[in-house]
Amino acid sequence: MSKLGVGKEIVTNCSKCKLELAHLIVAMKDELTPHKVQCKTCKSTHTFKTKKAPAAKKKTTRKPRVSAADKITNAWEAGMSKQDGDLTKYSPKTKFEIGELIDHPTFGSGVVDKQIDNNKIQVIFKTDIKVLIHNK
Ligand SMILES: [Zn+2]
């Protein structure tokens, strides 16, 4: 890497052109960091910015942390908290209504989310959504 200094060229992002372009160093911050640079294309002078974009990008891709499982758990908690009645033991013969709480032998407690058709309901359990038979 060649030494940086006033009058030297450096390729950096031009804030006006929005492109990586050759700039002339107008002023130095310290021995290694330019302070002000002039774009050789549009001749505008701006503060030299060290590249921070890739680090910021990483953060944004890492952010949507709410997984599908978390969403289900949130919906389940919301459904459970709305009801204070007793849980109905699940049986395929029983007819369930939307919002009703189910006690399933395998999946545990769940909330009836949707009526899919006369014999099928969608139930939110703590970690999964299941379609169950009812009203047989
Ligand atoms: Zn420019």
Can you tell me about this structure?
With 136 residues, this protein is α+β, with helices and mostly antiparallel strands. Strand 3 (34-39) and strand 4 (45-47) form a beta hairpin. It is rod-shaped. The strands form two sheets. Strands 5-6-7-8-9 form a five-stranded mixed β-sheet. Strands 1-2-3-4 form a four-stranded antiparallel β-sheet, with no helix packed on it. The mean pLDDT is 88. It is built from two helices and nine strands. Helices cover 18% and strands 38% of the residues. The protein has two domains: 9-54; 68-133, no CATH class. The chain has helices at 53-62, 68-82, and strands at residues 9-14, 19-28, 34-39, 45-47, 88-89, 101-104, 108-117, 120-125, 129-133. Bound molecules: zinc ion. Zinc ion (ZN) is lined by residues 14, 16-17, 21, 39, 41-42, 44.
Question: What keywords describe this structure?
Answer:
136 residues, alpha+beta, 2 domains, five-stranded mixed beta sheet, four-stranded antiparallel beta sheet, 2 helices, 9 strands, 18% helix, binds zinc ion
Mean pLDDT: 88
In which order are the strands of the major sheet placed? 5-6-7-8-9
Q: Which distinct ligands sit in these coordinates? A: zinc ion
Describe the sheet with the most strands: 5 strands, mixed
Query: Span between N and C termini?
Result: 77 Å
Secondary structure: number of strands: 9
Rg computed from alpha carbons, rounded to a whole number of angstroms: 30 Å
Uncertain segments of ≥5 residues (pLDDT<50)?
A: none
Q: What's the number of helices?
A: 2
What is the general shape?
rod-shaped
